[in-house]
Hints:
The structure is a single chain. This protein is an alpha+beta fold. It is built from six helices and seven strands; from the N terminus they run αααααβββββββα. Strands 1-2-3-4-5-6-7 form a seven-stranded antiparallel β-sheet, with helices on both faces. Strand 2 and strand 3 (136-143) form a beta hairpin.
Amino acid sequence: MDSFFDALEPEQAAEIEQLARVMYEAREYRRLLLEPYHTDDPAELLARIETMTAAGQCEHPTYEHYLAVCILDETRKAARTLMAARLRDNQPAIEAPAACHLTLYEALTKEVGQMFSAPPELRQDALLLRLSNGVELTVHYASPTAYSLRWKTADGQQLGIDTAPGHRGLGAGPQHLHRADGRVTDDPLTRPGQPPWDNLQAVIGALRDDPLLTAHK
Length: 217
């Protein structure tokens, strides 16, 4: 390993080391998330979630674990792409596509002081947002069609919007709202396939004025 790094420029070696650490930490966190489910396949976990939901069982936090694995896989893929590019001689600069939650984080950092009581917190698999009215919003955004936005109000009530499959009798699309009283209803705020920033802005805007979404029956 020493001879490998000796052949690199110091700046290149530092970047390779950082990318290797990102891949390792994402792999280990992924393993810990999937271990209780006795599978290494997120598609299998998603199929279980659909079965659970259709049977009337709560799909949370299993769906958030599924989304986290998808986000971690995208992180590892991007890191591998960058590492391969950095190790090739005379290779043009390559920028790996950013995961949805990283793109959202960059957009959110520009809104501090307008929407939030504290800067957005970036985690390996999610974003934690603290709104000025005491709402805490946890965002798992794996793709424009796979996401979970769950929040706790200042008095401890919990709600969430997500795209977990399997809910029957709702409107078109998988998106739905888990209300504080346990009911699952149509999602009045987001649409799968819309730009993630548009969906997130719609939710944040609604929660600032009406955390329980009482205006949306």
